[in-house]
Write a structure and sequence with these properties.
This is Mitochondrial import inner membrane translocase subunit TIM50. This protein has helices at 2-7, 18-28; strands at 10-13, 34-38, 44-46, 49-51, 66-67, 81-82. By secondary structure, the chain is of the alpha/beta class. The model has no long low-confidence stretch (mean pLDDT 96).
């Protein structure tokens, strides 16, 4: 993660609630690789799913990649996903 943080702007974007995800992120991110943390309130609720709308990040969408295990989470930007 520390190498990734040196090369990229890493953002933790989870559909989990902050009260659960923040302590886990604190535990796994010993290198402070994540510059930002986004939680469920940053997602869009769409057809029963919390979707991570990458266009809301304020970054050029052609420079954004999402790593996620749930296709529903990135359904708005499937071509940017590595799952």
């Amino acid at each position: 993660m520390s190498t990734m943080a040196d090369l990229y702007e890493c953002v933790l974007f989870t559909a989990s609630l902050a009260k659960y995800a923040d302590p886990v992120a604190d535990f796994i991110d010993k290198w402070h690789a994540f510059r930002y943390r986004l939680f469920r309130e940053s997602c869009v609720y769409h057809r029963g799913n919390y979707v991570k709308d990458l266009s809301h990040l304020g970054r050029p969408i052609n420079q954004v990649v999402i790593l996620d295990n749930s296709p529903a989470s990135y359904m708005f930007h499937a071509s940017h996903a590595v799952s």
